[in-house]
């Protein structure tokens, strides 16, 4: 269900971005406010553009969210304080904390909005080791910092 929600949010985000770009063209006088003259095939082109955006939105969550394992010394409970400090450096605060798992959310509402409120980062301990789950562009930075700081 989470995958579907992320795909819908991405489609809405792309649609709003498309509308904003078209609005800029119309306001600047580069185009008329008529779909038939704005696009080569009129409304048919509009449906084709929406189909492409839907296809990209369907694939985007698979490519941009995931779980990655961290190679550090120790475990989650032994590094809890340092991990919390690292996350605070990136603008995250603790949302939930339990045995073997910590969940963080961004403090800034603007940053959360830019990520479509899909800003949760979960750090967990399992039999494979310490894992970081969330938006890949954030988790890569977090993992890099963890490996640098916690493996001295």
Portion in strands: 15-25%
Number of helix segments?
A: 6
Task: Label the overall shape.
Answer: elongated
Cα(first) to Cα(last) distance is 40 Å
Summarize the SSE layout with pairings.
Elements: H1 2-27, H2 35-38, H3 43-64, E1 65-70, H4 80-89, E2 92-98, E3 101-106, H5 109-114, E4 121-126, E5 129-135, H6 136-150
Antiparallel strand pairs: 1-5, 2-3, 3-4, 4-5
Helix pairs in contact: 1-3, 4-6
What does this structure look like?
- The chain has 152 residues and is α+β, with helices and mostly antiparallel strands.
- 55% of the residues lie in helices and 21% in strands.
- It has six helices and five strands, in the order αααβαββαββα.
- The protein has a five-stranded antiparallel β-sheet with strand order 1-5-4-3-2.
- Strand 4 (121-126) and strand 5 form a beta hairpin.
- Helix 1 (2-27) packs across helix 3 (43-64) and helix 4 (80-89) packs across helix 6.
- The longest helix has 26 residues, at 2-27.
List keywords for this structure.
152 residues; alpha+beta; 21% strand; elongated
Quick overview of this protein structure:
Helices cover 55% and strands 21% of the residues. With 152 residues, it is α+β, with helices and mostly antiparallel strands.
């Amino acid at each position: 269900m989470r995958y579907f929600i992320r795909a819908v949010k991405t489609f809405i985000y792309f649609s709003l971005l498309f509308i904003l770009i078209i609005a800029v063209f119309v306001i600047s006088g580069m185009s008329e406010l008529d779909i038939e003259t704005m696009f080569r095939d009129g409304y048919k082109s509009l449906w084709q553009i929406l189909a492409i955006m839907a296809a990209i939105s369907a694939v985007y969550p698979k490519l941009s969210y995931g779980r990655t394992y961290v190679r550090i010394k120790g475990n989650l409970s032994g590094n809890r304080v340092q991990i919390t400090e690292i996350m605070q450096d990136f603008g995250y605060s603790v949302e939930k904390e339990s045995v073997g798992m910590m969940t963080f959310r961004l403090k800034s509402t603007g940053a959360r909005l830019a990520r479509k409120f899909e800003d949760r980062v979960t750090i967990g301990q399992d039999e494979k080791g310490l894992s970081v789950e969330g938006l890949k562009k954030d988790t890569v930075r977090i993992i890099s910092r963890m490996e640098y700081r916690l493996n001295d």
